[in-house]
Automatic annotation (TrEMBL):
Start and end residues of each Response regulatory domain: 4-118
GO BP terms, alphabetized: phosphorelay signal transduction system; regulation of DNA-templated transcription
Species this chain originates from: Bacteroides cellulosilyticus CL02T12C19
Keywords carried by this UniProt record: ATP-binding, Nucleotide-binding, Phosphoprotein, Transcription, Transcription regulation
Pfam family membership, one: Sigma54_activat
Protein name according to UniProt: Sigma-54 factor interaction domain-containing protein
Superkingdom as given in the UniProt entry: Bacteria
MF GO annotations: ATP binding; sequence-specific DNA binding
Domain Sigma-54 factor interaction as annotated: residue spans: 131-360
Residues with PTM 4-aspartylphosphate: D53
Length: 434
């Protein structure tokens, strides 16, 4: 049975976006625009979690939380807040809210938070590949992932935060014999130590004070499929011991039960941690590491794949334009150069977030560097682009895109790039663009 979530938000555009995200993830969603209607929805439904704005046209999120507590409902609350009202969010947490989310709300952060707060995980079929990336480094990672996919060995995916490690896990699932079975993603950094066993193995009615019914855990939900353990380096020590036993014996018992169940899942894990260092420092069990890393794959950072930046940016722009229902047509040249010159410490996730922010705030169809909140890197007519701005792969991609937009008109392309026609011809020859 689907869990029911209540969104309390008077911004109808944001409310619609949140509702679609949550429905796509497998939740039943109710909505309300003010406190009185939210109270009615809570009274008439078995609400598992409330996601509420702090400030509402009638009433507010904090008084709704206080009312819920006074009724003895024990419903988890997550409050959403603008930066200017951060003090309200802090007050809400002190009163009993489980967490707060700053606006604009990002889908991935919201889903990670829900996984940590709600007993059952969100089980969804693997997403189709976002797009076919061009860089040699990513293509090599994907080639290796497809080769190891048919095997039933555990795989650890290494790489920086936001680089797309979960997409590699989904690719492995799609090319494995478990492709038609569940893919369950678990953020190990969001699981509290005292709840870990129940979260992973489930529990039976009466196992502890709040165990009012039998509840399946991650292993049961992923049965026959793939269990993806993200941020494995942050797994609580006590859970490491329990997980090791399950991987060795391939059986587990729900909390409060002596009945052994088969652990029929393939384990994929991911981390940005230096695992050898974590082992040396005693933060991660060496024997568990070798069980989880029968095979390792590395996902490169976005800065290692400059030729992917503009195609990914276009993909995210089209995706978010459709989702938010805003018409956009592309990026200004200055925005493209700014994206190519940015270091992207947050990798693909940062690019996605900046594009979403830009689409949301854009005042014209062409997104600018200001919309992206990036510094301007100017390349005006008659001026040379800053020396060292772009590596060859970045420069090739920029020239290709401008050639395409200018219909191959060399004089115009040369002016936009701030270089002479002979120089442009030489670069086109070198990059195979003629």
């Amino acid at each position: 049975m689907k869990k029911t979530l209540l969104i309390v938000e008077d911004n109808l555009i944001l409310c619609d976006i949140l509702e679609r995200w949550l429905q796509k993830a497998g939740y039943r969603v109710l909505t309300a625009i003010d406190e009185p209607s939210a109270r009615r929805k809570i009274k008439g439904n078995n609400v598992a979690l409330v996601l509420t704005d702090v400030r509402l046209p009638e009433g507010d999120g904090i008084s709704l939380l206080e009312w819920s507590i006074s009724q003895g409902l024990h419903i988890p609350f997550v409050v959403m807040t603008e930066h200017a009202s951060i003090a309200d969010a802090v007050r809400a947490v002190k009163l009993g809210a489980k967490d707060y989310l700053p606006k604009p709300v990002h889908e991935e952060l919201l889903m990670e938070l829900l996984r940590g707060l709600i007993g059952l995980p969100v089980s969804v079929p693997p997403k189709k590949s976002l797009m076919k990336r061009l860089s040699g480094a990513v293509r090599e990672t994907e080639r290796i992932a497809c080769r190891v996919a048919p095997l039933n060995c555990s795989v650890m995916i290494l790489g920086p935060n936001g680089s797309g490690k979960e997409s590699v896990a989904q690719l492995i699932q799609q090319h494995s014999g478990r492709k038609d079975k569940p893919f369950v993603a678990v953020n190990c950094g969001c699981i509290r130590g005292e709840l870990a066993a129940s979260e992973f193995f489930g529990h039976v009615q009466g196992a502890f004070t709040d165990a009012k019914k039998d509840t399946a855990g991650y292993f049961e939900t992923a049965k026959g499929g793939t269990l993806f353990l993200d941020e494995i380096g942050n797994m609580p020590p006590e859970m490491q011991t329990l997980l090791l036993r399950v991987l060795q014996e391939r059986v587990y018992c729900p909390v409060g039960s002596r009945k052994e169940l088969e652990a029929d899942v393939r384990i994929l894990s991911a981390t940005n941690e230096d695992m050898e260092r974590a082992i040396r420092e005693g933060r991660f069990r060496e024997d568990l590491y070798y069980r989880l890393a029968e095979f390792e794959i590395r996902q490169p950072s976005l800065s290692e794949c400059p030729e992917d930046i503009l195609p990914l940016a276009d993909f995210f722009r089209e995706q978010h334009s459709e989702e938010i229902r805003v018409e956009t047509s592309g990026f200004t040249e200055q925005a493209k150069i700014s994206m190519l010159s940015h270091s992207w410490p947050g990798n693909v996730r940062e690019l996605d977030n900046r594009i979403r922010h830009a689409v949301l705030l854009a005042v014209s169809p062409l997104l600018t560097h200001k919309d992206l909140n990036l510094n301007a890197t100017i390349c005006r007519t008659g001026e040379k682009c800053k020396k060292g701005l772009m590596e060859e792969a970045e420069e090739k991609e920029l020239i290709r895109k401008i050639l395409e937009e200018c219909g191959g008109k060399i004089s115009r392309v040369a002016r936009m790039l701030g270089m002479s026609r002979p120089t442009l011809y030489k670069k086109m020859e070198r990059y195979g663009l003629r």
